[in-house]
């Protein structure tokens, strides 16, 4: 059975027996189906797991990006804050998309 087929079949089960279905039970069922599909794809070495590829965990990637960006932060402050045109305060941490291009205007309240 293909991983996508396993997911499709699992999604159909709560719809076929609505008396047993609840939002939390459905989410758990989908999560279990995704785990099973991932294990199958990994064992067959297809998709993300083809050619023995290793997958970098997102939280490890973000931690590396934050550490690398933090070493170039001005002074001892690593979080930049500015105020947008609507007056909302926006904070940028090292490694986030807009961190490097954010320019602080202390006269406008940024820091």
Task: Give a verbal description of the structure.
With 111 residues, the chain is mainly α. The protein folds into two domains: 3-52; 66-108, no CATH class. It is built from three helices and two strands, in the order H-H-H-E-E. A hairpin with a 5-residue loop joins strand 1 (80-83) and strand 2. Helix 1 (3-16) packs antiparallel against helix 2. The termini are far apart. The model has no long low-confidence stretch (mean pLDDT 74).
Note the total helix count: 3
| Low confidence ranges | none
Number of domains: 2
Give the ordered list of helices and strands: HHHEE
Strand count, sense and barrel status of the largest sheet are: 2 strands, antiparallel
Mean pLDDT: 74
Helix content: 40-55%
**What is the end-to-end distance?**
55 Å
How many DSSP E strands? 2
The shape, in one word, is: elongated
Overall radius of gyration: 23 Å
Please state how the strands of the largest beta sheet are arranged side by side: 1-2
């Amino acid at each position: 059975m293909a991983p996508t087929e396993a997911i499709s079949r699992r999604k159909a089960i709560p719809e076929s027996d609505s008396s047993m279905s609840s939002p939390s039970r459905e989410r758990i069922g989908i999560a279990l189906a995704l785990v099973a599909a991932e294990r199958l794809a990994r064992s067959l070495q297809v998709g993300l797991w083809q050619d023995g590829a290793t997958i970098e965990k997102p939280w490890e990637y973000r931690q590396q990006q934050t550490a690398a960006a933090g070493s170039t932060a001005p002074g001892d402050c690593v979080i930049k804050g500015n105020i947008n045109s609507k007056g909302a305060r926006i904070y940028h941490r090292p490694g986030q998309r807009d961190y490097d291009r954010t320019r602080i205007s202390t006269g406008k309240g940024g820091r």
